[in-house]
């Protein structure tokens, strides 16, 4: 498929302070993703990042199998070959699949003991497994572990539970940087209750293709105090304003500050403004609004049940596709204004503390969101996300939105040209970084653990790029 040239549009007039460190942006030096601990002194460098998502998969694919099904070319350009497991595994078919642009990949499946082993050149690989619960199996009745090269990489997979209790919904799980040292790759699904199920698998080399990106905006947090007001805005909100979240968002340095070269968003258990918790939420509205391009955020995530950290984007004109909103209505948290989901949302990274080892990416729009169980989303295994910095990225073009972690693509959404209801991503958005406490998802794994406070999210840098 052809590569679309992307552009990044800054709606505001960027001051010299906003572009500090970008004086060398015309240079051709490249920072490779394998060295993503790049020094802050290397401002203005261009990042060698991934090409369009479909081409990345095509170039680096070792195997892509449609288990129990036929050959199929996915919307991201990956060609899946048929794969029939051995006689110990049953092969089934379902007509109903929700939450995917490639439903044919999830309509067939293997059910039972799944053992996949093939010779493979030693090296580093990414493995993606595709699942969908094809029956009305209750949550908790089909649970299994994923074992790759004799190491349990994910325990207690409950496909229906991981899709919010909905059967038939597609679920993708990516496992990054799998090391092959003995010339073979083995993938096993081991039941703890019921029998395992799987619909497809992808194995690709862990390698970032070279594509030049032009750095156009950044914050390296090489100062002290409050976030740079020429780049960031604060949301100051009461508890329960959105998503039934428990925290009050403040602009205090206690909750949001820059120190020792890092942006810190810190949540506290305290009585404040009729709330039980405080935290921070900042954004770039009218200071860095993007239409197509790439964003990298290098972050260390919080730990503990009740945390809900997010790096995400909302439309800078939320009323672009709304139909029920009053002029300048406060649409966030509104029950009458349909700016959300009509005008869209891009979740680059979401992480909840009760599910420490998974990072999630999602797009929301009128056609596909949680109300109709057609939400498009993906997840990647993120070991030590609270102890190590990782780079969470989005690449956004007129044809694709792709999420990546440390250069590994794990979710893609394609523009099918079916109107704004499915693709409202044709107008500028801005970046948001926040640490919520509780809320509908943060409390989904149980009550907030009050022993974790204070708890923080750390950001090493934020960088925005256009396609060079």
Automatic annotation (TrEMBL):
Sample GO molecular function, one term: hydrolase activity, hydrolyzing O-glycosyl compounds
Keyword vocabulary terms for this entry: Signal
Gene3D superfamilies (alphabetical): 2.60.120.200, Galactose-binding lectin (2.60.120.430)
Biological-process GO terms, alphabetical: carbohydrate metabolic process
Keyword Signal: yes
Leader peptide range in chain numbering: 1-20
PROSITE patterns with a match to the protein in the record: GH16_2 (PS51762), PROKAR_LIPOPROTEIN (PS51257)
Domain GH16 intervals: 210-468
Domain of life, per lineage: Bacteria
PANTHER family assigned: GLYCOSIDE HYDROLASE FAMILY 16 PROTEIN, GLYCOSYL HYDROLASE-RELATED
Family label: Belongs to the glycosyl hydrolase 16 family.
Name listed for the protein in its UniProt record: Di-glucose binding within endoplasmic reticulum
